[in-house]
## 1
Amino acid sequence: MIENLDAKVGKIMDAIESQGLADRTITVLLSDHGEMAGAHGSWAKVQPYEESIGIPLIVAGPGVPAARLDPLVSTKDLFPTLLGLMGLAPRASVPGCDLAPVIRGSGSAPERPGVMLEMVWEQVPGAKFHRQIWRGFRSRRYKYTVIGDLESGLRPWQWPRHGWVPFPGGNDAVSFHRACPASVLPASRPSGSEGGPAMTRAFQSTRRGSAPSGTA
């Protein structure tokens, strides 16, 4: 699969070059999800592990220096970034950050604590996460994830599990990751809910029928 994709990308790049478009074409290679490929004993996508949530974002073209960058990036950044690479801006306020200056080497990465992760409602009976929802928050160093469904609500799932914190000061890190999404998903928290107020807000949004962006 990777070899075939590499060959097809090569054909596209050859066509751009042969038609004299290379000096005014920005080429972007990306994906909407990663691939477990047997990691953690799992295949396909939908899992909140790095192999699944990490996606390629490779940009080439005029004004784009060769470099490997490591800012925290969300799929919400793609629209404003692609416009920015063309010298354009959205007509109205949109979610996400324009990373074009970062890609061109003329600006710094946005200051933000992390990005949201979302997997909503697998509809195929028998499939993994059927009628389940998971949400997560990924900072530069850690990831905090909760899981649940429309009947039982959300509960802590990946780190911490059963109250176990694996390093000194871990409780502060857990609190930080639970609180960070609050500014992204404003809503009230139902009494007695588990999984942290911010993650419950995401759950409420799904119950109302909205479709969150950046789904796996």
Note: Confidence is low (pLDDT under 50) at residues 182-216.
## 2
Amino acid sequence: MSKLNQAKRNAAARAVEYVTSGMLVGLGTGSTAAFAIKLISDRIRLEDLSIQGVPTSRATAQLAVEHGIPVLEDFSHVDLTIDGADEVDGAGRLIKGGGGALTREKIVAAASTREIIIVDETKCVQQLGRFPLPVEITPFGRHYAFKRLKDLGCEVSMRQRNGYPIQTDNGNLIVDCAFNKIVEPARLCDEINVIPGVVENGLFIGLTDLVFVGFKDGHTEAHHISIQKKTGTELLTAKASNPGREARD
């Protein structure tokens, strides 16, 4: 296993420790979340852990079932969600959607009592925006949504595979918006979501409770996001030289 994948697995292992029997657990989408699913499966097999999973994508549902995790897609509340991110800043704000599952991921996150984000060190940034922001839009009127998104000051591109637009699990399209830097994430999130034809965007604001960051040198850091951090501007850089600033494991 590469050092980067080991870092992802280490972060996932710390998050999976929070899973207890009887929980309804949100299962994220992506390579890091996949480690968590496999580790939960190990606990079910070795510890007789009894949980149900809420998958955030069809791919995640398939992976969960393959690993013996019963899944549920009709819910009003989720106890704990473990998911990855494409970018995370020190206030626990995220860019998600690189895997195209952003709408379902946000629904599950919003329904969760606790949202734990697991990332490797390369996903930690001082300012969001280096990773193009995914936005899910309806096929109908997509050129109008394109225009309105461009008016916000970004370069917009349709996400494609083999020359054809990628369709989400919800039957919609994904466009990637290159802002380079996002100065006011909460404001931008609202501005995008009022555009007719936009289903959801990949900015996750005020949803994160805890972040585990795995490092290629083998250690893991835990970053607890307070209410103030969720709405504030304090920034975290995982590569900071002062480990005393945050809990370090």
Note: The longest helix spans residues 31-47.
## 3
Amino acid sequence: MRELVLVVCALAACGGGDELLIIDAAPPIDLQCESCNPISHSGCFSDQRCSYIHDDAGGTFGACGHASPTCVPEGSLAPGASCTISAGLPDDCSAGTFCVHGTCRQVCLSGSPATACTSGACWFSEQLLGVTYGTCAPPCDPLANECPAGEGCYLLHPSGEGGCVVAGEVLEGNACQKAEDCVAGTMCGQHVCRRICDPTLGDCPSPQTCEPWTESGSAGLCW
């Protein structure tokens, strides 16, 4: 069970008298958890940003519980910069970005042009940022799989757009729930990790065939 994180709010930082705020994944019932927006940063003071606090299990939490955004001190690292995380603390990425696998990446909201990714596809991880906000995965070619170590190129959009996200550990042929559950070079198709292939080459092991998995037919999965 994670330890409680104690944050002492000073007069200038919290807009009121000195108080002690206890932040935990399961906050007390009388804790006032006011929501903020990690893209516009509404709900936070000018020297703060709306972001998340990293936990010790690879996820996040905030004043409202698991994967909830909360106001934290402003960071200084630009999008694309290398970053580190520490359990019980926010990262040091600048407003509108979040540290994912050692890189500050843009926070996004899928389906909204004003908050879409400037580059790449919006990737959602319920463990990290919940189901409302995601981070922009760097664009990549699923057939080339040229992503940083520890990441894989997965088809994140029916158009065939690929994005580099943290690679899963489920091997080809085993059960899965999400695209990125599977190891790099494979992807979840109908709850089974399947090899990503080129429909024009038919590069699947016999007797499997490469079935298109995108609208354009540019990439497929071995069945």
Note: Confidence is low (pLDDT under 50) at residues 1-32.
